[in-house]
Automatic annotation (TrEMBL):
GO molecular function ontology, one term from the record: hydrolase activity, hydrolyzing O-glycosyl compounds
UniProt cross-references to SUPFAM superfamilies, sorted A to Z: Six-hairpin glycosidases (SSF48208)
GO biological process: carbohydrate metabolic process
Domain Glycosyl-hydrolase family 116 catalytic region: 502-779
The protein's name in its UniProt record: Glycosyl-hydrolase family 116 catalytic region domain-containing protein
Organism: Adhaeribacter arboris
Residues annotated as domain Glycosyl-hydrolase family 116 N-terminal: 78-393
Pfam families in the record: DUF608 (PF04685), Glyco_hydr_116N (PF12215)
Length: 902
């Protein structure tokens, strides 16, 4: 591994210049000024002094976030653009692909490196490694182990212009950041054409198969803006790097093969043995193939002897199976391209595919050694062929999701982007899917194995977008391989045969979510005995039977804490309440009663014993006291996390509302700062996940100003308390949104969004313990609560209660077997609510909607298309529950409309 080093002092000098230029790049100064001494001794400012105009802008629809070359915003962009669980392939800001972590190298971090840091990180060393945030401090860029790109040749009025799609060749490039699509505009006022490229991999919620293709698609649109004929040639090329690590000069050679059939012209590259060592080669992690394909007519091929600049002469029309061969040390590049003429004002579309096939996924922790996509394909050529044969369906459904999520919604663009961007973690080497179908993940790229329960339980995106993956993980691992006889769930699968208390509770809540995201009760029925065993284990962790978990076990802050800890207690209460709900559905009245008694007792005692009048705390063990690390009287970021989880799955209240709100307001008061600089200057040891000049919600602060707030034995894990880890911040934002603290929720989410502005680092890589950290997918939970969304598939129940601009609202939703959009429009006389299904089907029996202004309803009209449906309804002060006479199926392209008249 090549180690890159940068001194912290040198970095801070650079960052001061960076900050100055950053403020002129379009981002506003959001807070201040603060009077002298206001931030002395690293205190969090009580008055955040946030700019009112900036606050107002957070609610506005705005525009797609567009990063510009002229503002120096393209250097760090790396949007994962391959299929989910297929490796990491980055799309750069100028449209070129980079990183190329598709060869199963299994390294820690996207760019293993070390940075010198004057202040010890986690009190262990003065070095920032990949798992400590090296790519936060010094973002990765320009990692190009192979050559790839596209070029245009434009002929008009006896003029020929050749431009590659790269930063240097265009006066302006605009990158629209709407994962899973990026739209890139290449602008040159001197040319008679407009050039736009959409880059994506098929992404269709609920369809993990077609969303997991090892391929990237380039869709060009070129418009002739002149009054004369323009001739254009598009050419794409790809270097064959099969065997990038294993290839040996004396025994291996790379070869490219041209292949053509109706609708598909491609060059496929692979590696082979010169002698008899082919079978051994086939077992290597980097054995496989790569393909560049054109899905267009009039396509020609580019041979290995490419000379730049592009010229017409490089195009040939070889017969199928024409080979080009090179030794390992030589570059072997092949390409495809086609020519077309454009009349004035006309537009042309052209589609290209880059696919790969490297099936030998070798992780030492697990026996399964094959990638899931190898069940369906045998080569990158087969991947490209499948895309060509199904292109219309795959591209149209992917674009329909983009349209539904981004274009039709009324939520702010920046909010939709940030709450969805972390879903791209699924398309990185954080996540894998084995040949058995098993979903397996690190915490972050190559770091901390075993789909860790106490990290992954924060991630809300996968369960809503690809519920099959989560259901299978619950069945195969949490209730299978990892389930002990006593009900304890190993928190890292094969990698660690221990339970983690928060992971156990969170997994039970995920089980309930996976049940809700099913079409029927078969998942619950088949697994109930195991689920019940896992819940029973959780109940045994309450040693003194007061409803407050107090058995010391591992937690997500990598320590074993003694005593009664509000955030763990509350999480356990939420899990047991989920157990009660599942027991009731299973008609297991005795167990439901046990769960109910525990929750009632625990909620009461949590509020009585762990609430200090302002926020929830950690009560020390009566015998051990503060001998070990803990949060004690500090303001801890997760203190009411259990209630946050409850809102994600419609469990209602488990903690008193006023005390919960007081706790959240304390987090805002004591933990949020628009500039972490003064705080981290005084509170050292944390990893650099937020730097001076950037805002954040600090993990733990000490409002009581105690001398030893975190216990007598202040170990290395104490450094965590002084960090800003975005997954925890997203969890709090989701909770605040649910409780009506909308402004605070938006500020926290936007603060994270701005920390990951492309001027500073990769917008698609929220970093915690290594890159593309799984916990950051908690951001999807903020979208869920912004919509007030609840869904219970087996019961046919769905609910919406939008929090942002509810008078005119529209947003996407996903259910067990279908997705679409929900909209509502409100005026003084009526409310109109519509569920438009765009994919799959939705079975509806009950709908719960929010009523504005608490008006009495005079009439409810329900229509499926033009058909009026009979309904019954029950109104409370601020909501209405509508029930159909029978379960109503809603099919693709159907709209269910509910009109409430006052």
């Amino acid at each position: 591994m090549q180690i890159r080093k940068i001194n912290r002092r040198d970095f801070l000098k650079q960052s001061s210049v960076l900050s100055a230029s950053f403020l002129t790049s379009g981002l506003p100064v959001i807070a201040g000024p603060f009077p002298p001494g206001a931030l002395a001794d690293g205190q969090i400012p009580v008055d955040k002094k946030l700019d009112p105009a900036w606050i107002k802008s957070l609610y506005q629809r705005g525009q797609v976030t567009t990063y510009l070359k002229t503002k120096n915003e393209l250097n760090y962009i790396g949007m994962p653009v391959g299929g989910i669980t297929c490796g990491t392939l980055y799309l750069g800001g100028d449209g070129r692909l980079w990183l190329w972590d598709i060869f199963n190298k299994n390294q820690e971090g996207i760019e293993p490196k070390e940075l010198q840091w004057d202040i010890g990180v986690l009190d262990k060393s003065n070095v920032v490694k990949s798992r400590d945030g090296a790519c936060y401090v010094q973002p990765a860029q320009n990692i190009r182990p192979l050559e790839q790109g596209f070029a245009l040749q434009i002929k008009y009025e006896n003029t020929t212009v050749i431009k590659q799609l790269k930063t240097e060749d265009w006066p302006e490039i605009k990158f629209e950041a709407t994962y899973p699509f990026a739209t890139i505009h290449y602008l040159d006022a001197g040319l008679p054409v407009l050039v736009q490229v959409e880059v994506y991999s098929p992404f269709i919620p609920l369809d993990a198969e077609n969303s997991g293709l090892p391929a990237a698609i380039y869709s060009f649109q070129i418009i002739n803006t002149s009054r004369k004929l323009v001739e254009v040639t598009i050419m794409g090329w790809l270097e064959n790097k099969a065997g990038i690590y294993s290839g040996e000069q004396t025994i291996h050679q790379r070869y490219n093969t041209a292949y053509q059939q109706p609708g598909l012209s491609c060059v496929t590259g692979s590696i082979r043995a010169k002698g008899s060592a082919l079978e051994e080669l086939k077992l290597k992690p980097d054995y496989g193939s790569m393909t560049i394909a054109s899905l267009n007519k009039n396509t020609g091929f580019v041979g290995t002897d490419i000379t730049w600049p592009l010229a017409d002469a490089v195009f040939t029309q070889p017969s199928n199976n024409t080979e080009a061969i090179k030794d390992i040390k030589e570059k072997l590049i092949g390409g495809v391209g086609h020519n077309f003429s454009m009349k004035p004002g006309k537009a042309v579309r052209a589609d290209y595919v880059i696919s790969w096939f490297f099936p030998n996924l070798q992780l030492k922790e697990v026996p399964d050694k094959k990638r899931y996509y190898a069940n369906k394909f045998n080569s990158s050529l087969e991947v490209a062929t499948y895309l060509q044969q199904n292109f219309k369906k795959l591209s149209s459904l992917s674009k329909l999701w983009k349209q539904t999520w981004y274009e039709e919604a009324t939520l702010p663009h920046w909010f939709l982007e940030r709450t969805f961007a972390n879903t791209s973690t699924l398309a990185t080497t954080t996540c894998h899917r084995f040949g058995s179908g098993r979903f397996y993940a690190w915490e972050g790229v190559g770091c901390c194995p075993g789909t860790c329960t106490h990290v992954w339980q924060y991630a809300q995106a996968v369960g809503r977008l690809f519920p099959l993956l989560e259901r299978e993980t619950r069945e195969q691992i949490d209730l299978g391989l990892s389930l002990s006889e006593n009900g304890a769930i190993w928190f890292r699968g094969e990698a660690d045969h221990r339970p983690a208390v928060d992971g156990q509770a969170g997994t039970i809540l995920r089980i309930y979510r996976e049940h809700q995201m099913s079409t029927d009760s078969s998942f619950l029925n088949q697994n109930w005995s195991k689920i019940k065993r896992a819940i029973t284990f959780l109940l045994t962790l309450d040693k003194n039977k007061d409803g407050l978990e107090d058995t010391p076990l591992e937690n997500t802050l990598d320590a074993v804490w003694d005593g009664e800890i509000a955030w763990i207690v509350g999480l356990c209460l939420a899990a047991v309440k989920a157990g009660q709900a599942m027991a009731e559905e299973m008609h297991d009245a005795d167990f439901a009663a046990v769960c109910q008694e525990y929750v009632t007792k625990g909620s009461r005692n949590m509020e009585d014993k762990l609430f200090n009048g302002e926020y929830f705390i950690h009560r020390p063990d009566p015998e051990k006291g503060r001998a070990h690390l803990g949060s004690y009287n500090t303001s801890h970021i997760d203190q009411v996390y259990g209630q946050s989880w409850a809102f994600q799955v419609g469990l209602g209240r488990i903690i008193n509302q006023q005390k919960t709100l007081s706790a959240l307001k304390s987090l805002w008061k004591y933990n949020y700062t628009p500039d972490v600089g003064p705080y981290i200057k005084e509170h050292t040891g944390g990893r650099p996940y937020a730097l001076a000049g950037e805002g954040g919600l600090v993990m733990n602060t000490n409002p009581k100003q105690e001398a030893k707030p975190y216990g007598d034995n202040q170990t290395w894990q104490l450094g965590y308390f002084h960090e800003c880890m975005s997954g925890f911040e997203h969890q709090v934002a989701a909770h605040m949104m649910a409780e009506g603290m909308i402004e605070e929720a938006l500020v926290i989410t936007r603060t994270i969004h701005d920390r990951y502005h492309a001027r500073k680092r990769n917008p698609f890589n929220e970093i915690e313990c290594s890159d593309h950290y799984a916990r950051a997918m908690a951001s999807y939970g903020t979208f869920i609560t912004a919509c007030g969304f609840e869904n219970h598939g087996p019961k046919g129940y769905i609910a919406f209660a939008p929090k942002i601009n509810p008078e005119r609202f529209k947003a996407a939703f996903t259910s067990a077997n279908g997705w679409g959009s929900y909209s509502q429009q409100i005026n003084p006389h009526q409310q109109v609510h519509q569920i438009q299904l765009k994919y799959g089907d939705l079975q509806v029996e009950k709908i719960k909607l929010e009523i504005q202004d608490k008006q009495p309803i005079q009439k409810v009209i329900a229509k499926l298309g033009k058909q009026i449906l009979p309904v019954q309804y029950t109104q409370t002060d601020n909501s209405i529950l509508i029930q159909f006479n029978k379960r109503q199926p809603l099919l693709t392209n159907q709209t269910l409309s509910i009109t409430l008249r006052f």
